[in-house]
Amino acid sequence: MNQKNLLGLNNSFLDLDDPIQLFKIWMDEAKKSEPNDPNALSLATSNKDNIPSVRMVLLKGFNQNGFVFYTNLNSQKGNELKENPKAAMCFHWKSLLRQVRISGMITQVDEKVADQYYNSRDYESRIGAWASKQSKELNNRDELTNSIKEYKQKFNDENNVPRPKHWSGWNLSPTRIEFWLHGENRIHERLNYTADKSGNWIKSLLNP
């Protein structure tokens, strides 16, 4: 029988007061068991008319300040985040039968942070950030292929490809984080953290 913490939950919840600490532990476990991209998440945004959209992106960093991903700022998600800087993330680790849901406010990362991550990417990915007009209509694949060739000619030094101004990172500063663990007969276990006005985390249990 699994041990229980003070709230009566499975010991995987660890009875921690800091959800970022718990997220790190769960992410480290997912890295060991997930066959592909444990840092993959579904990102939900909505535009100024409150029409939602969702897509998969990759988490590229997190700390007490939030959760960071990168994209073309002129993409659909980029434009929606400019119009409505609220977003939600959902991680689903099937190998562990776990989910984490995060919601909060979005801000753009510092230019130096964006430069540092961009320069860590491989050459083809850096060129792709220039060549692709993300989310815009594409007449045919040759149009994109030719654009890639043009930027490879322009930036033929693989060690010197500047970051496009239209490409950067977003940081989701969480106001709510929920940890979910699969239970038999759909009696799942859910632990919710909500930030109060002072930034302190308040824990509560949720019905499955």
Explain how this protein is built.
This protein has 208 residues and is an alpha+beta fold. The chain has a single domain, classed as Electron Transport, Fmn-binding Protein, Chain A (Pnp Oxidase, Chain A). It is 27% helix and 34% strand. It is built from 5 helices and 9 strands. Strands 1, 2, 3, 4, 5, 6, 7, 8 and 9 form a 9-stranded antiparallel sheet that branches. Helix 4 crosses helix 5. It is elongated, with a radius of gyration of 20 Å. It starts with 18 loop residues before the first helix and ends with a strand.
Summarize the structure.
With 208 residues, this protein is α+β, with helices and mostly antiparallel strands. The chain is 27% helix and 34% strand.
Q: How is the secondary structure organized here?
A:
Layout: H1 19-33, E1 40-46, E2 52-58, E3 61-63, E4 66-72, H2 76-83, E5 86-93, E6 98-108, H3 111-120, H4 123-131, H5 141-154, E7 167-181, E8 189-195, E9 201-206
Antiparallel strand pairs: 1-2, 1-5, 3-4, 4-7, 5-6, 6-7, 7-8, 8-9
What characteristics describe this protein?
9 strands; nine-stranded antiparallel beta sheet; elongated; single chain; 27% helix; 208 residues; Pnp Oxidase, Chain A; alpha+beta
Topology as a string of helices (H) and strands (E): HEEEEHEEHHHEEE
Q: Total number of helical segments? A: 5
Mean pLDDT: 94
Shape, please?
A: elongated
Instruction: Write down the domain tally.
Output: 1
C-alpha termini separation: 20 Å
Helix-strand makeup class: alpha+beta
CATH-level-4 superfamily name:
Electron Transport, Fmn-binding Protein, Chain A
CATH class division: Mainly Beta
The CATH level-2 architecture is identified as Roll
Helix content: 25-40%
| Number of beta strands | 9
